[in-house]
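User: I'll paste a sequence; please echo it back and then give the predicted structure.

Assistant: Echoing your sequence first, then the prediction.
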Amino acid sequence: MRFELYLESGPQHRKTWVFVPGLPGCIARGPTTEAAIENTRAAILDRVDFLRRHGEPVADPEPIELVVADHVIERKWLGFGLQFFASDRAPLTEDDVRTQLRWAGWSREEFVAAARTQVIPFASKPAQGGRSGAEIVAHVAGAEWGYVSSTLGTLPGYGRAIASIERAGLEPWEALAAEREAVLARLRTITEDARTRVLEPDGKTPRSARRMLRRMLEHEWEHTLELRARLEP
């Protein structure tokens, strides 16, 4: 199966992120461009396994053909997924939205499962640095609210939703579920115009519904993998 890859690299290609829009939510990274591309094969298989675990019929991707469609040398905010790629211009169909919202539900299940089983105390930062589990949960919730608001117009209630998650401390799950339901309620009403238009504000990154949904899935999966890595001995 052929997959187009969209890359972000730092100076001298030291550290590269790979995005695979043809398999929404699939990401990889590595200390060099070559390593990141090589890691993409395992990332694709991992993403396919994720979908199959939840009953999604997915064709066998082997043999995997990787094609670099775009490569951006990003000296600032590397890995933040700020780029707008050519593939993000493709209109979303109603079926695309239904499919990716279904995937978002499964993704949230696995994200919460990884967060709930943390060995490091949930409110504590790991010794090697980075956010605490509680901070990651609030960060993921805030980011997806931002993706939706910047593309479809301001989604009211951001402050209350995130504050509820933060105030919940070691038990943010009910507040997190309420935040996600508010996001999904907005996405379920997305119009044909919103699914197909591309916003190109002066001096800012373009926005589209396709980019919005892929970033929601990519970002949550990124942090699910981060939390799972902390469980490894």
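Residues 94-116 form the longest helix (23 residues). The chain has a mean pLDDT of 94.
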